[in-house]
Amino acid sequence: MKRGFALLETIIVITFVTVSLLLLYGTFTSLIENKEKNILYDDASNIYEMYYLKEYLELNGLDQYFGVGNIIQLSCDDFSFASCSSLFDKVSLEKLYLVSYGLRDYNQENFSSTFNRYYQSLSNNYDYDYLLIGEFFVEDVYHYASIGVNVS
Amino acid sequence: MKRGFTILELLISIALISIVLLLLLRVMMSLEVINHDTSYASDDEIGRTEIIKNIEENFLEYHLNGMNIQKKEEKTVITFQMDEVKVLEIASKQLTFDGEVYSLNSKNAKYSTCIVYEYSDLENDYYLVRFTIPVLIDGVNTTSRDDLVFTYVGLKNEFTSYPVSYSC
Predict the structure, then answer these.
(1) Which of A68, A122, B68, B84 could make a disulfide contact with B79, Cβ separation 3.0–4.6 Å?
(2) How far is CA A116 from each of CA A25, A42, A95, rounded to the nearest angstrom?
């Protein structure tokens, strides 16, 4: 008389349980990604901050970086006005990226994984020349927001 | 006659299930952290966005040029000097802007009537004004992601009038 499981039965059960748990894992992971998108990406406050920043930087030499590259990282060292650092600090802005609108192929190794994830979540449904992306660092978490820029 | 598991079968099963459970645990923990940090945001996310958008659009459309902040009983009243004067009233459970009432949906959440205000001069007669209405939730450490943050960058003229600082 045979009692208990055979190895084959055990493996089938384990496979079934593993597949189910992996499916659950996938669901939770996508849930977290969606939650992150809602909370950390394009918050209304950050969008308006980006709008004012864009308007102000346009008055202070943003146009000199048009045509320089497909994706460039900007900081206060790239602008000559004195209040730049205090402006960035007030809105908790760490970095700015000026990206050719609709750019899909770029060397992701040169940028942080959080930036890459944000950039890949963007749709390109509008008609801009560039996208100005802000990387905000608030309470140990990176937030992102972007605004379209047209070369006029 | 074979009975039950062999030790090898048992070890393989335990190892496989442990790996999967560890992965799940990691995901569950990050989900818990996100949920804890944003308990307000999940209930009032749409309302928060609507308020910010409405007030910021008014700043742009009617050209914000000054502000006056007053504490009246249990409320804080901000008068915006724009092409049309508009008023924002902050009470613990609701905001009223330009006659429109925005109520909080979250059961344990309330607005702090003690706003955080900053004003600074920029180059070429520009200025930055920024104020935050903190959101407080009983029993939860809220983050700035829950707060209502308003920013405006404008060009000074002879009528521009903002408080240099404010503390409640």
Answers:
(1) B68
(2) 22, 15, 14
Check pLDDT > 80 for residue A2: no
The pLDDT of residue B18 is: 83
Residue type, position A62, single letter: L
Domain ranges of chain A: 1-40, 42-149
Three-state SS string across chain A, please?
Answer: CCECCCHHHHHHHHHHHHHHHHHHHHHHHHHHHHHHHHHHECCHHHHHHHHHHHHHHHHCCHHHHCCCCCEEEECHHHCCCCCHHHHHHHCCEEEEEEEECCCCCCCHHHCCHHHHHHHHHCCCCCCCCEEEEEEEEECCEEEEEEEEECCC
* d(C-alpha A19, C-alpha B125), whole Å: 63
Q: Taking an 8 Å Cβ-Cβ cutoff, which residues of chain A contact chain B? A: 1-7, 10, 14, 17-18, 21-22, 24-25, 28-29, 31-32, 35-36, 38-39, 43-45, 48-49, 52-53, 55-56, 59-60, 81-83, 86-87, 90-91, 138-139, 143
What are the mean pLDDT values of chain B's consecutive 10-residue runs (168 residues total)?
68 80 77 57 78 96 95 93 95 93 85 94 91 85 81 94 91
Render pLDDT for A51-90 as a digit per residue (tens, 0 to 9).
999 999 998 889 999 988 899 999 888 988 888 888 999 9
Which pLDDT does position B13 carry in this prediction? 75
Type of residue numbered A81? F
**Rounded mean pLDDT of chain A?**
87
Q: Are A80 and A61 in contact (CB under 8 A)?
A: yes
What is the ipTM metric for this complex? 0.78
